[in-house]
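Retry 2 of 3 after timeout on previous attempt. Resubmitting structure tokens to design endpoint.
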């Protein structure tokens, strides 16, 4: 099978020759050690050696305040968004907003001005033949709304002034829908999947009640999912943490796979998820990055991935349970993941 055939079959829970695999996004400081482990000259070479099935495609976006679509909003009014050091807890410009008309006063960016369709096409055209091209759209309107007010203020607004919170969220969702249209139209027929989502869970529970998530987060998520599906794309929905109580809602919204199934979060073990949702949705992740990949031996990692393969003969994209591999992960354990998944032959 080609990587793309394997990805589609895994997502659709059909038989595969081996599980689809995805390395994710190693932290910049972790890359030298990984390259040394695999004798690779760069990340593209390492993904070739691993036979990684998914090639993530960053969205070309360049505005006066940001060069990353996931950091498009200057809510702290600093003139330039520091994409590497953003925080959701600092107060944003809507912290003291009490009049819904003030929402329109913000200089909301227009994605059509800052996205070049030619660059979008070029980004997808650079994906090697036979690989799955997955757009990293993110569209994290919930996290952006938390930044717009400051996390604590945003959650209070949901209760005291929900119409103001919803007005801000509506502008955010509109931005991502417009950005999605630019990208999806420019890459029509060439793109295979998109990763979108919002972090809604902590280690032991959701950040909000399921009822509040259904009111304040899922309506926008549904619009974004429906848009992507209208272009024939597979949708992988991202949320870290213990999100099991709203997985039925995500299934109902039409997601094809849930990422990253944070293995040690409450209710998120592969065994628990398989028992409840096998045959209903697919998953991506499950290889624990909190303990196993950090402290485990190569043999232990290999054994756990083998268990995951037995539990999910299909329907699971084998990947670390967070998209970023940090410097505390032994590169030898990354090797063990791909060896056990069958994409890398033991040396």
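Retry 2 succeeded. Sequence:
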């Amino acid at each position: 099978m080609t990587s793309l055939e394997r990805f589609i079959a895994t997502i659709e829970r059909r038989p595969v020759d081996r599980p689809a695999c995805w390395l994710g996004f190693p932290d910049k400081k972790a890359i030298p050690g990984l390259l040394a482990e695999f004798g690779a000259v760069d990340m593209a070479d390492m993904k070739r050696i691993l036979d990684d099935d998914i090639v993530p495609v960053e969205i070309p976006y360049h505005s006066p305040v940001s060069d990353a679509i996931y950091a498009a909003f200057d809510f702290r009014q600093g003139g330039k968004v520091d994409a590497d050091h953003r925080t959701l807890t600092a107060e944003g410009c809507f912290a003291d907003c009490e009049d819904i008309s003030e929402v329109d006063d913000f200089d909301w960016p227009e994605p059509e001005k800052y996205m070049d369709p030619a660059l979008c096409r070029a980004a997808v055209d650079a994906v090697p033949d036979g690989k799955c091209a997955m757009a990293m759209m993110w569209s994290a309107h919930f996290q952006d709304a938390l930044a717009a007010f400051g996390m604590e203020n945003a959650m209070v607004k949901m209760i005291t002034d929900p119409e103001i919170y919803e007005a801000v969220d509506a502008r955010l969702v509109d931005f991502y829908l417009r950005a999605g249209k630019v990208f999806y139209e420019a890459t029509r027929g060439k793109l295979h999947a998109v990763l979108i989502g919002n972090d809604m869970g902590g280690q032991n529970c959701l950040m909000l009640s399921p009822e509040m998530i259904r009111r304040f987060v899922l309506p926008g998520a549904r619009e974004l999912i429906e848009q992507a599906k209208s272009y024939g794309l597979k949708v992988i929905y991202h949320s870290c943490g213990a999100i099991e109580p709203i997985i039925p809602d995500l299934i109902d919204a039409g997601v094809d796979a849930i990422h990253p199934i944070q293995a040690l979060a409450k209710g998120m073990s592969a065994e628990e998820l398989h028992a409840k949702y096998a045959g209903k949705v697919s998953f991506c992740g499950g290889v624990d990055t909190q303990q196993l990949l950090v402290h485990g031996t190569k043999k232990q990692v290999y054994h756990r991935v083998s268990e995951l393969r037995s539990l999910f003969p299909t329907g699971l994209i084998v990947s670390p349970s967070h998209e970023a591999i940090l410097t505390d992960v032994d590169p030898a354990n990354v090797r063990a993941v791909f060896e056990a998944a069958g994409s890398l032959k033991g040396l």
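Attempt log closed. The chain has a mean pLDDT of 96.
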